[in-house]
Design goal:
The protein is α+β, with helices and mostly antiparallel strands. The chain contains 11 helices and 9 strands. The strands form 2 sheets. Strands 1, 2, 3, 4, 5, 6 and 7 form a 7-stranded antiparallel sheet that branches. A two-stranded antiparallel ribbon has the order 8-9. Helix 3 packs antiparallel against helix 4. The longest helix has 36 residues. The chain is elongated. The chain starts with 16 loop residues before the first helix and ends in a 7-residue tail after the last strand.
Length: 353
């Protein structure tokens, strides 16, 4: 069924292409600031900051420098296997997230030079006139100039699954719009990311990107500091203990071997072998494999894991606190059971038929 959209008044010609391009150059694109993309090289750098892997790589390089290629290959193989598994898993997730961002980027119907144009949401600028109809995703915060029975679902911003009514702005409406917040009923403002569920209207963009309401939320979230998982903290503490003990034993072995036998090169090799043998070399590989398996298993439930360390945090959660439905759910209902007036009960077929 076709959805009607409001006609364009002669006074609503919108921006010209030149004005829109100038504003885009001055204020940038209508998109939220992104964290630096995690390239494979950056992921490798993050992985190598783990103390155990750094110790294994360092020990392998020491053996290589001393000419003991067999021990060097073993240690380097352990370390590189753990690094490879992590890089492959997290790089795949990064590529999927990038693809999802492109797919979910909304398109906007704008009025420029008196004509309607369908453009990418990121190309909307302040001052653009956007045409909104049922089923549209609002591309930016905007002031309603005209509307007819317009309702918007702002659950993305408020958690409230019930849509709110919107009205057209009266004189001085711009000041009201800049001070309004999502969730209010009968306000002349629509917000970026909200969904038009009923009616239609024309609105003038007043905020884009990081200046929009959803952009402010994104900026606030970026200031949060994430704590390392407890398993990671315990691993680092254990590595320090093993490194100190292994270093002390290795130094003692080098001193005794060199003093008693007189061959200091052999003493260094023997001390290094003894020190490295005291390190639990399997731990980083085992933990990496298990984290990767956990990420793969929850990906089957359509959950993406950007960092494998988050698997441990998720697995140790015992209580999940939520406010109400509409925030974490799909915001839709499904039939669980159908009962007829004669008492007959029908159950929906499951995936197994």
């Amino acid at each position: 069924t076709a959805i009607s959209t409001p006609a364009i008044s002669e006074s609503l010609r919108g921006l010209s292409e030149a004005e829109a391009l100038a504003r885009q150059r001055a204020h940038g694109y209508n998109e939220l600031p992104r964290a630096d993309r995690r390239t494979p090289f950056r992921i490798v750098g993050e992985v190598l900051r783990e103390p155990m892997l750094a110790l294994l790589l360092g020990g392998g390089l020491v053996y290589l420098a001393l000419g003991d290629s067999d021990e060097a290959i073993i240690l380097l193989a352990f370390a590189m296997l753990a690094v490879l598994i992590t890089v492959v898993q997290e790089s795949r997730t990064e590529r999927v997230l990038e693809a999802l961002r492109d797919i979910t980027s909304p398109r906007a119907l704008v009025i420029r030079d008196g004509e309607r144009q369908r453009i990418a949401g990121r190309e909307v600028v302040c001052g653009d006139l956007i045409v909104l109809a049922e089923g549209d995703r609002v591309p930016a915060d905007a002031l309603l100039l005209s509307c007819h029975d317009l309702q918007a679902d702002e659950s993305l911003l408020t958690g409230e699954s019930v849509p709110v009514h919107k009205i057209a702005a009266a004189a001085g409406g711009a000041n009201i719009a800049r001070n309004s917040r999502p969730g209010g009923d009968r306000l002349p403002t629509v917000f970026s990311g909200s969904l038009i569920v009923r009616g239609n209207g024309i609105a003038e963009v007043i905020a884009i990107g990081a200046d929009s309401e959803i952009g402010r939320i994104g900026q606030a979230l970026r200031t949060l500091e994430t704590e390392p998982p407890r398993l990671q903290i315990q691993m680092r503490r254990m590595v320090r203990v093993f490194a100190l003990v292994g270093g002390a034993v290795s130094a003692l072995a080098v001193a005794l071997y060199g003093t008693l036998r007189g061959s200091w090169l052999d003493a260094v090799l023997a001390g290094s072998a003894l020190g490295m043998s005291m390190l639990p070399q399997e731990f980083p590989v085992v933990l990496t494999v298990f984290m990767a398996m956990g990420a793969w298993r929850i990906s089957k439930a359509r959950v993406l894991t950007r960092r494998a360390a988050a698997i441990e945090t998720l697995g140790s959660a015992t209580v999940l606190c939520t406010d109400k439905t509409g925030t974490l759910t799909e915001n839709r209902m499904s039939v669980a059971e159908l009962r007829l007036s004669d008492g007959t009960v029908f159950l929906p077929l499951d995936s197994n038929g």
